[in-house]
């Protein structure tokens, strides 16, 4: 097998066709995490603004280059929404939209985006694929009008290929050219490039997955609301954040008990801005979702 294409031409061209954008606005990477670190190392920001709770790699990457971190607490009482007036100026602002671990849209449109006081705004859309109307929510088409905007996308979540490691960013061509200077060559192997190119042609899979996730997420939300001691937050992603209330138990304890039933929860106590009262569940097939609900009821009712 020959060396991988260092420009990832075919997959970049496929992405350009998929979104109707220019190929020189696209940069392929070894997962979106590589691109997060690439942005940080290329621009070496003095101040990075991060709403919390959110994905931890933004802060980890920024601290490596010595950036000062400005945290903005999301409003827990309003489904962890972002109050724009609390966002201070900085060199780079990271926005995960939909946000991880909540699953909500913290930016509803470009008007909110343009109000953010930052030299560069990185929008991580790792979970946007799960929205049936994602083209109404993605900010990919805004990069040509605003050179501050960088949009991150990944194949990991929606196409379920985390081991292949491929993601991409969309930005103004000048930004892309700058970032390429810092990127390690041949970072995406040949098999991964071929797999991702094929994935974008699977229109039936894309449609069916969105329908399946939305249907099962609605089912889970309804059932969790019936469980005394649990409060689910609204989500548009393939997971749901849950607050444990009134039972005097913690997320680590609940995680341990459900492991005994061969169910793995995501303990969210290590997310900055959350605590041991938060856990996250994945949206899975109907039978597994029923098993999860029954197991949660059993554990909570025994306390």
Automatic annotation (TrEMBL):
Enzyme class: lyase
Residues of the Aminotransferase class I/classII large domain: 3-291
Classification of source organism: Bacteria, Bacillati, Candidatus Lithacetigenota, Candidatus Psychracetigena
CDD domains: AAT_like
Transmembrane segments: none
Entries under InterPro entries matching the protein: Aminotransferase_I/II_large, PyrdxlP-dep_Trfase, PyrdxlP-dep_Trfase_major, PyrdxlP-dep_Trfase_small
One Gene Ontology term of the molecular function aspect: threonine-phosphate decarboxylase activity
Enzyme nomenclature, EC number: 4.1.1.81
Organism: Psychracetigena formicireducens
Pfam families recorded: Aminotran_1_2 (PF00155)
Keywords in alphabetical order: Lyase, Pyridoxal phosphate
Record's protein name: Threonine-phosphate decarboxylase
Cofactor(s) listed in the protein's UniProt record: pyridoxal 5'-phosphate
């Amino acid at each position: 097998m020959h060396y991988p294409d260092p420009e990832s031409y075919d997959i970049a061209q496929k992405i350009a066709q998929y979104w109707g954008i220019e190929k020189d606005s696209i940069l392929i990477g070894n997962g979106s995490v590589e691109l997060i670190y690439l942005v940080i190392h290329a621009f070496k920001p003095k101040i990075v603004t991060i709403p919390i709770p959110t994905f931890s790699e933004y802060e980890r990457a920024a601290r490596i280059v010595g950036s000062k971190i400005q945290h903005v607490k999301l409003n827990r009482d309003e489904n962890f929404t972002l109050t724009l007036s609390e966002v201070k100026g900085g060199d780079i602002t990271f926005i995960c939209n939909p946000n991880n671990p909540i699953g909500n849209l913290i930016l509803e449109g470009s008007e909110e985006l343009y109000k953010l006081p930052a030299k560069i705004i990185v929008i991580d859309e790792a979970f946007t694929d799960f929205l049936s109307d994602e083209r109404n929510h993605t900010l990919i088409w805004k990069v040509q009008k605003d050179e501050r905007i960088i949009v991150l996308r990944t194949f990991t979540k929606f196409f379920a290929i985390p081991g292949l490691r491929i993601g991409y960013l969309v930005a103004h061509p000048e930004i892309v050219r700058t970032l390429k200077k810092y990127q390690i060559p041949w970072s995406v192997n040949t098999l991964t490039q071929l797999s991702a190119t094929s994935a974008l042609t699977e229109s039936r899979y894309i449609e069916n997955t969105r329908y399946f996730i939305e249907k099962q997420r609605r089912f889970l939300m309804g059932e969790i609301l019936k469980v005394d001691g649990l409060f689910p937050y609204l989500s548009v992603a393939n997971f749901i954040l849950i607050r444990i209330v009134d039972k005097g138990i913690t997320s680590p304890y609940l995680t341990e008990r459900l492991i005994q039933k061969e169910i793995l929860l995501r303990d969210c106590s290590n997310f900055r801005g959350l605590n041991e009262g938060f856990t996250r569940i994945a949206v899975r097939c109907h039978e597994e979702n029923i098993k999860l609900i029954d197991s949660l009821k059993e554990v909570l009712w025994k306390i």
